[in-house]
Amino acid sequence: MRAVGEGSKPLPPGANVSMFVPRDVYGVVRPRTVDEVRDIVRAFARTEEGPRLQALSTGRNWGLGSREPARDGVVTLELGGLDAVRELSVEGGWAVVEPGVTQLRLAELLAGTGRMLNVTASSGHTSVLGNAVDRGVGLRRQRTLDLVGLEVVLPDGELIRTGWWPHGEHPGAINPQGLGPSPLALFTQSDLGIVTAGVVRLLPRPEAQCVLRLGFGSGRLAEAVDELRRWTAQGLVSGVLKVYDPVSTRSYGGLGDEYLTHLCVSGTERSVAAVTRVVEEEAEESGLFTRVLRSDEHPPAPDDLVARAVERLYAGDPSRNEAMLRSAVGQEADRVDAEGGGWLFFLPLIPFTGPSVARAQELLDRVHAETGIRPGSTVNALDPDVVDLVVSFRFPRTEHHARQAHRALDRTYELFAEAGFHPYRLDSDHHAWMDRFSGDPAARAFVRRLKETLDPRRVIAPGRYA
Ligand SMILES: Cc1cc2nc3c(=O)[nH]c(=O)nc-3n(C[C@H](O)[C@H](O)[C@H](O)COP(=O)(O)OP(=O)(O)OC[C@H]3O[C@@H](n4cnc5c(N)ncnc54)[C@H](O)[C@@H]3O)c2cc1C
Description:
466 residues, alpha+beta, Uridine Diphospho-n-acetylenolpyruvylglucosamine Reductase, domain 3, Vanillyl-alcohol Oxidase, Chain A, domain 3, 2 domains, eight-stranded antiparallel sheet, 30% helix, flavoprotein, FAD-linked_Oxase-like_C
């Protein structure tokens, strides 16, 4: 185990790419085994004084605070050193991984097999578990749907396995809820335990895939979104349909000055050929799209980093993500926080309807008019009813520009809250919004009671969702 700077003075503040206020961090502990994690937790449980523990996996939560805790007075528990793929079953469709296992590594292990990982558009060097416990989103679906079991160190040092775990010689069929009340969800976006491993599902690899790129002008936004929603509801679309607005296309290194949809069709050779033709016909008949390009007939141009990456991402391959990351923040994964260009995220869920997406776009226009900052947005359709709208703010990394970008972010929180568009993930500066967004106060009090019961000594620091 390695420990850095555990003392009575905070460490010098670290940099984060979003320029969120750095908190007082009194040390960093890097355990290498689960037993070491348990020992650390027990040591903190022996005292009620002093800094409390904040867990992270690879700490690349860029746009939401990176490694920054939500509050002062923590010791950071970095779990990247627990990096074993403990078990992997291509036949059963699951892998048992530790927090340091990156999406690139797991995806590479699956190359050429009948399974693939639901990968995100972030760097290949981000953690599968870190992203899943923060309820991130991949190109196939939300990562919580991949998470079927968690190994957790509780605040008293006890180790539990919740959800589904393969049982020895006869692993059985995956059943994330198990029997009776399921504690699995208690440990995502949570300060109730420290995750030391998880079971993630591996999706069947489609035999064939075609990605369509459909452009449309801003004047057709609501109608085009309604049409795309119709195709999604009728089963023409595989995975998460994406629509980049022109600002976000450029932010991530894509080409084009109109809205651009990326739509995946996957299945057998014959089903993909048939459904792709149906989508082309529907698009033609709607009269809404300026162009419809198929990945097999019109592969993306070499400098169209977004289309090139997205095409591979649907197939579970994050190897082109680093180019997109460099375009977004100007740096490799290891240097994003120290030297990358400024980057913030706001992540609301909104209804998958043309009027809702158009309304969100109006709100972002208002943010631009009021603050001078033009946010980019990407529609990620999670299902026929729900869009994860990724709103990004890029800014030069100076105090002045950071103030302006943060003002724009604050204003976006306000305007979206008023419109009923609530975020599903929070950044390290906006944890105070939990009370406003978390619905029934009695349910919130219930979770606080659980924290009180499980962690009376406050071993684990209250996080972004406390
Ligand atoms: C260009 C770009 C594209 C991006 N694309 C995506 C995308 O497509 N989808 C997406 O979801 N995000 C995306 N992101 C955001 C972010 O980079 C990813 O979500 C990333 O996976 C999070 O970092 P991490 O995996 O290192 O997790 P970490 O930073 O290690 O963990 C995230 C949080 O989860 C909790 N946590 C982590 N590990 C543990 C543990 N072991 N026990 C208890 N709690 C824990 C902590 O609260 C921690 O702060 C993108 C960012 C950029 C800049």
